[in-house]
Amino acid sequence: QITLRESGPPLVNPTQTLTLTCSFSGFSLRPSGVGVAWIRQPPGKALEWLAVIYWDDDKRYNPSLRNRLTITKDTPKNQVVLTMIDVDPVDTGTYFCAHTAVWGVGMIYMDVWGKGTTVTVFS
Amino acid sequence: SYDLTQPPSVSVSPGQTASIPCSGDELEKKYVCWYQQKAGQSPVLVIYQDKKRPSGIPERFSGSNSGDTATLIISETQALDEADYYCQAWDSSTGVFGTGTKVTVL
Predict the structure, then answer these.
(1) What is the dihedral of CA A72, A74, A75, A79, to 10 degrees?
(2) pLDDT tens digits, one per residue of A27-73
(3) Which residues of B touch A114 (CB under 8 A)?
């Protein structure tokens, strides 16, 4: 059974760096075709895709946030970390990580999600 | 950037069919996923690769993708189908979500 759990600080001051950790079980980032994505959702608003990291360390970012995000993986620990620099109140929301399966070119889907962690940016 | 547009809301009577469109430039050239998100919960994948259902998803959920529009269809809608629904596609290997549609079962 695949499970994911997000963790991070509930409160962050503006301009600080936010570090979120996704700890997972039931799968490994070693075999091909596996990745972990991050998605966020401001209160009452739509989902926003942030980043993904794949088994081969390929990384993709949301173009609008590219210069503020870094995604890394610790395969032995079964963890993926997302770092966001220079946070702002508009970054407030729930952050989810999701198991991502790759079956071919363009055939990618996020099939299991964590419960999310809520982050509030305020001074 | 690539945009996916959905209507903000769709209303449907119990037992009827709900149709949720998702529009994007040449969307048929991309594979589309659909996610259901009930209030206070994490999203759940209900359709992938345009029309495939993950195990455990009822057959009343179906999908199609043609031209610039992908569509999620919920047949014989039930009260428990009331939720927000998001389409999602990949553009140059980066993910994009639609604007979301709130489905209300009246």
Answers:
(1) -90
(2) 999 888 899 999 999 999 999 999 999 999 999 999 999 999 999 99
(3) 42
